[in-house]
Design brief:
alpha/beta; 43% helix
């Protein structure tokens, strides 16, 4: 018979003072979290600021609202703002996440001259819903949503046409919507226009690898080399997980001056007073889900210069010189082949991915003097 061996563990009594200290620490942490949540909730009154006249009263004839509209069977939210509700309507299509809160941090001046519609697209921000099937997040569906929102705005404001502006991923949807229904729009404006996104990612990868190598950042070089972007295998998950951090650290991300997603995007998003606390949480839930969105595959697989080689309306590209998120040279190459009755390409020398936020005065001048007028006098000379 084999002897049974029992392992005896020492009888260590838990120090009551240590237990008390731990309980106090946990209580302080929980109290801090509750206070933070309370502050965020109090700072989120769920209503956009009205425009104010010189006497501190709501500006007569202005519009500043946050609404939800049923679009193709889904509740979708938007902010609508303009100092004069009779101004031309401009529909803004965001990229990977809503950008209204960034416009609060980086004023554009658009509301002085347009009724600006900051629409949170299906699955994002105000339009987030946990039960939206990811498989419905397709280019075709978002193009259809864009046209439905456009018609809602046309009917509501009594306009035959509106202006359509896309940014980053919003340009992928916007330029296709404009191609499908040019009669609905005065012009299409692509800010950080997508073109051949897989080639853009490859250019960004090569640029970052070179820059980190030159500055001696061996850790980033190793991480990038372990997740190569290729035209055959695409963008590995490890690269996508690293992409935002790497781009922002080099000034080729959201803005040329922004070096941190945490301080540059996350903090402004959670301190925005016009989203409720739950809407802020949903904004990031939607952003997290976008990382596995069915949209990314079609974006990488589509060469827009072949998908949309021609537009039957004026088209304008606003491009930051430092942009590698949607690379400047790819946008330029697309523009050169794109056919349109009027077109203009504008280089923003101090900008990366967001020239509307980085150089707002220049962007507004182009909008007023060229886009609204259907001209291209301020465009880059060839």
């Amino acid at each position: 018979m084999r002897a049974r061996h029992e392992i005896q563990t020492p009888n260590r009594s838990f120090d009551p003072r240590m237990r008390q200290t731990m309980l106090i620490a946990v209580s302080i942490m929980l109290a801090g979290v509750l206070v933070l949540l309370g502050v965020l909730q109090l700072g989120s009154p769920d209503t956009p600021n009205p425009f104010i006249d010189e006497n501190g009263h709501p500006l007569a004839g202005s519009i500043s609202e946050k609404i939800r509209v049923t679009i193709n069977g889904i509740d979708q939210g938007m902010f609508i703002r303009g100092k004069d509700a009779t101004l031309p309507v401009l529909l803004y299509l965001h990229g990977g996440m809503p950008e209204y809160f960034l416009a609060q941090q980086h004023p554009t001046g658009l509301e002085d001259h347009f009724v600006v519609v900051w629409w949170d697209q299906r699955g994002s921000g105000l339009s987030y819903a946990a039960d939206i099937p990811p498989e419905t997040m397709t280019p075709e569906q978002l193009i259809s949503d864009t046209l439905e929102v456009t018609n809602y705005l046309r009917h509501r404001f009594g306009r035959d046409k509106i202006f359509l502006m896309g940014h980053s991923g919003g340009t992928f949807i916007g330029i296709q919507a404009a191609a499908q229904a040019p009669e609905l729009y005065y012009a299409y404006i692509g800010v950080a226009q997508m073109s051949n996104q897989l080639q853009s990612e490859r250019l960004a990868y090569e640029y970052m690898l070179q820059q980190f190598g030159e500055t001696g950042n061996s850790e980033m070089v190793q991480r990038l080399e372990a997740a190569p972007v290729t035209l055959t295998d695409g963008t590995p998950k490890a690269y996508l997980a690293l992409r935002d951090e790497a781009m922002h650290s080099l000034g080729i991300g959201t803005t040329h001056e922004m070096r941190s997603v945490l301080t540059g995007i996350f903090v402004p998003s959670i301190t925005s007073r016009e989203y409720t606390l739950m809407e802020k949480i949903n904004m990031w839930r939607g952003k997290a889900r976008s990382g596995v969105s069915p949209l990314w595959g079609p974006m990488l697989a589509t060469d827009l210069s072949k998908q949309v080689p021609e537009l039957a309306l004026p088209v304008y590209f606003f491009e930051g010189r430092y942009d590698y998120t949607c690379s400047y040279p790819e946008a330029r190459a697309y523009f050169e082949t794109l056919k349109a009755p009027v077109k203009g390409f504008y280089t923003f020398e101090q900008s990366a991915h967001s020239p509307l936020f980085e150089e707002p005065e220049k962007a507004l001048r182009i909008l007023l003097e060229d886009v609204v007028a259907g001209a291209n006098g301020l465009a880059d000379s060839k």
